[in-house]
Amino acid sequence: xxxxxxxxxxxxxxxxxxxxxxxxxxxxxxxxxxxxxxxxxxxxxxxxxxxxxxxxxxxxxxxxxxxxxxxxxxxxxxxxxxxxxxxxxxxxxx
Length: 94
Fold this sequence. Notes:
- By secondary structure, the protein is mostly helical.
- The protein contains five helices and no strands.
- The protein is elongated and about 60 Å long.
- The model has no long low-confidence stretch (mean pLDDT 93).
């Protein structure tokens, strides 16, 4: 393996580690309620199902999901769930 190839592999691994660190930091910044919402999304629950089970307005859950997406720097619920699984995140029980 050439030194250039080795350096590229090391740089790629370092970038991956940093990206995972950033995701973990972002997840740590979620509020307790956002953690509950993300946990529900990870189980496959929809916004409507979360609202119904928690007896809150659908708009409230949508707002909380938007906050999660913003904090995780993603624009989809699938992206948020994927980020959580990518770092093997296990939400704390509340």
